[in-house]
Write a structure and sequence with these properties.
Layout lengths: L6 H13 L2 E2 H12 L3 H14 L2 E4 L4 E4 L3 H17 L3 H11 L4 H15 L3
Antiparallel strand pairs: 1-3, 2-3
Length: 122
């Protein structure tokens, strides 16, 4: 599913992903507390997500369910980042991340395991 969500829309989705279901009122409350969004702004964002097919609205209660998983959104954002900043070269993204972040020994071990498992798929 290739639904492009903008940063503010991703904030709406994040509230739903964390709880699997949220009312518009609950989403509004969280976004007001975290980002200072007004109720009107939040409801506009929810409507945009509904119009894009990312959220399903169920009445009564204006309950919202995600139709896009967090993994799907992350994959699309990652692909866009690779194409936009690295001209489609994923290895350059990986190299940039590895060179610019300090990793714990546990993170290094997990990264090595991922690479080894991926290499075994050939």
């Amino acid at each position: 599913m290739n639904i492009k969500l903008h940063d503010a829309e991703l904030r709406v989705m994040d509230v739903i992903w964390k709880s699997e279901e949220a009312t518009a009122s609950q989403i509004s409350s969280v976004l007001k507390e975290k980002y200072g969004y007004s109720k009107t702004t939040t409801y506009t964002l929810i409507k945009r997500c509904i119009d894009k097919g990312a959220i399903k609205r169920i009445d009564p209660g204006f309950r919202c369910y995600a139709l896009v998983t967090q993994a799907q959104a992350q994959e699309l954002e990652t692909l866009e980042l690779i194409n936009k900043l690295y001209d489609g070269a994923a290895n350059q993204l990986v190299e940039s991340v590895l060179n610019n972040k300090k990793f714990s020994q546990d993170e290094i071990k997990r990264i090595k395991n991922i690479v080894n498992e991926w290499g075994d798929k050939d």
